[in-house]
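Re: your question from the hallway

Yes, I did run it. Sequences:
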Amino acid sequence: MSGRIDVLYHVRSDARSIDGRAKAIAIEQSVEMPVEPIDDPFVLEETVGRVEAIDDLGGGLFAVRIGLAAITTGMRPGQLLNMLFGNTSLQDDTVLVDATFPAGFAEAFKGPRHGLEGLRARVGATGALSCSALKPQGSSPRALATIAARMAQGGIDYIKDDHGIADQSYSPFAERVPVIADAVATEAAKTGVPTRYFPSLSGNLDDMRGQIALARSCGLDGVLIAPMLVGVDQFLTLKAENPDLAFLGHPTLGGLRITQSFLLGKLFRLLGADATIFPNYGGRFGNSKELCLALADGARRPWMDLKPCMPVPAGGMTLDRVPEMLEFYGSEVMLLIGGSLLSTKERLPQETARYVNAVRSFGKR
Amino acid sequence: MSGRIDVLYHVRSDARSIDGRAKAIAIEQSVEMPVEPIDDPFVLEETVGRVEAIDDLGGGLFAVRIGLAAITTGMRPGQLLNMLFGNTSLQDDTVLVDATFPAGFAEAFKGPRHGLEGLRARVGATGALSCSALKPQGSSPRALATIAARMAQGGIDYIKDDHGIADQSYSPFAERVPVIADAVATEAAKTGVPTRYFPSLSGNLDDMRGQIALARSCGLDGVLIAPMLVGVDQFLTLKAENPDLAFLGHPTLGGLRITQSFLLGKLFRLLGADATIFPNYGGRFGNSKELCLALADGARRPWMDLKPCMPVPAGGMTLDRVPEMLEFYGSEVMLLIGGSLLSTKERLPQETARYVNAVRSFGKR
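Structure:
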């Protein structure tokens, strides 16, 4: 792998110190030692990070572009994160904003296998999609299956486990997934909508392989995965081993000083998330409209020959916001409404149907 | 698993909003939906998070203590992180400061197997220890082995790979580790100091298992691991599979809004790091003396029947600071000096010996 990753950091500094600070980041994210004693020409010319540009953004903030040698990533996802932001994540003054990758990264990391279009195709849709989450934490498999059945009765496109539902004693994966998968399949056969259920993976690589095998045996063709929690190398391994499965990326533990638009929009896409969940504006997270649109567009706009990844805004969304959100994001989106839908309890099939119809009536299916 | 984890968050808020904000965190980190529609008594009484206390710290900062049901963690490390801070990590106003665990956590996660005393015993020491890092990124295995040999000639206790040295083409793990291990063993036989070399693990769980097998075949008895990069479930699995190996924890990608004293001091210890590297005060990271001491003491002071974990301050340390650092931390410490030692090039054996002697002459060995 040759070439350099062009990494954009925003650094708080005074004008007098920014040159030194930029050089320090270039060193920290590459050789991590003083350059003076280095005499190996390969190291000096290839692996030492380079300050490419510094722009004063005003108000004590600087945009610093640093060229990091692609070869130092070994083209592996964990090492890529390590080189982009590992030690610098421990320094308060710096935010990782964006990165441009040289040729070869798209081919090496492959991005989404199914992506936006694959998720539409699975449910026979051409427009925006509907999704909800099974909650609350602590419910039995049977209780979760009842909720899933009601959602499927409403004709929803995708149902996922809450990301907090792992493999706990009150709802072990091996008991939960078959019951829910069966409930969803039963209702889907009645409605004619091929509703999908994506269970949440957790544990180590072996555990997740076992969970995928079980999900397959239940006829499921996709899963929920939290790349920052399970480790990005596990994510890529599971993706490579399961080319037919769709992977819905969850943002939990993503609160590093990395912009969400880069981490959840572009980096998760490069790593291969077919869809990426993120906190929507105006919900219980503090994201701005600008950030959400940048994130969604980073996920779905043309980029490095990667398939588009489906943006999934979420986080305290309510049914009355469906038209506004579709107006904002357009039809290349999957909405995720959990809690407010679950609050309707016995009326869940009807309320789900209302939600699904609101999504379907926007643009053509 | 019964009982509650008592989690301390610091939240920026105004006095009018803090009650609601605290409740929102308790919900976000547990059932993640409105409580009103929940009618399952187990969920209401057991799994819903509880606000235990709110203290006004002044200046718009509040200390919020929340009780999270231990059962929701499934006693697995990734899910533990998910419940402690997963989605809340995406919210700018909240920092995870500390947590108190109920009975059973020490037994389930086990903590360090070797810890502070085990690391001393490996090199026949009773006082402070010396450590350095192999750099720079881009060097060949032979070049790194030359550096390692010089350090071993100086009688250093521990040598580790730079955390950025993974499995890249210019220094593949399988080529690098045998050459370096051999160089260190050869010099150690001459000096009589049983210098240890800990190579850096990377990749997925399978890759790391292979790397450990190779390290074992080279006679090594410890490794460097970055829990936040490889995923904490991988870390615990490798620890369980290799009870005789010592694990040196690296902080890379640890820059979440989790205090370093909790994440790198206590949580890494609970998960089983025998030693934990952290950015020292007065180096190239911005940590205060107070934070460093809290972190070191969290790692080594009596806590939940766990063995003490060795604190390893690092990050731009220089030889002239050895006496001051030992005065500050006492003898329950392993110093890590990398770049400034490497800058001495051919004089590395002599400078290493000076470093080692400064460490050894502090307190009794």
